[in-house]
Amino acid sequence: MGNHFTGVGNYIPTKTISNLFFDNHHFLDEKGNTILQDNATIAFKLKQITGIEERRYAKNNQVTSDLGYLAAASAIRNAKIDVETIDYIIFAHNFGDVRYGTIQSDMVPSLAARVKHKLEIQNPYCVAYDVVFGCPGWIEGVIQANAFINAGLAKRCLVIGAETLSRVVDRHDRDSMIYADGAGAVIIEPGEINIGIQAHLSASYANEEKEFLYFGKSYNSDHCPDTKYIKMHGRKIYEFALSKVPLAMKKCIDDSLYKIDDINKIIIHQANEKMDEAIVKRFYRLYDKNMPKDIMPMVIHKLGNSSVATVPILLKMILNDELENHQINEGDVVIFASVGAGMNINTFIYQF
Questions:
Q1: Residue 128 pLDDT class (50, 70, 90 cuts)
Q2: Residue limits of the Beta-ketoacyl-[acyl-carrier-protein] synthase III C-terminal domain (predicted)?
Q3: Full-prediction pTM beyond 0.90?
Q4: C-alpha span between 63 and 121 (Å, rounded)
């Protein structure tokens, strides 16, 4: 252990999409019936539950690998390294490059290879590959990079999380209001034993949980009947997350050298404000404690849910002092955690 972030970067798209953007959408239920509530009421309830007021969309001429490259370049500048010294590029995403106005995913060559090309890396032994692991993909990429370094297979890794979920949403599904675009990245290198990644845990639930998030047809049967979009069973995901994520976080702490009172921050996937708060409250209740004030920073209000990108984006924002009441200081212990399609869960403990 002791592998740490020497560079952190993000790319937040400049296109701001408020809830008013959805005023003229024709929302339907799963059976194709028009939802009786007006769109203003739907947007109000969305904000109440998820906290989302705005989200960011990529520019029309950008794709996921473009966003990933910009975040990677930011992390590389922050680390002040020579790109030729990178041993692995691990790119977490779920839908590949989807060009604006289309729904077809393009994943060949890998998005990691596309970023390597954009970075003009000549070293053939810089290995570039993608991770498809649902929303926890970036954390899983960090865990894999950590393993490569511990095994002596790498000394420096670039881990990217990027997504353009705005390209794979069904405009007739009100859940489309949740999703956003963005990218984050880190450089990971060996360091002192008492800093960096100290413990980690991953889990996959693929029985009845497998279909909680899936690709499905539009709720409008007349609208591209053969095209599929991101879909979810929100209530089932909520119940699953509240049941499984706190236990995973507890196991990670209990298997480490840390105690619950050592934790200074929890950086959790920005999926849904109420769900994330409920997860963290339940996590603390497992130790018969109340959730501390300012333990869980949230940026979903303005940035929406950009899947694999939410955690590294948030990390960079905190380190940049962009969030009021949320700082990370030397010696702080932080839990990173995520849950998403698979259904997958992962978490790691990091000391700064």
A1: very high
A2: 256-350
A3: yes
A4: 20
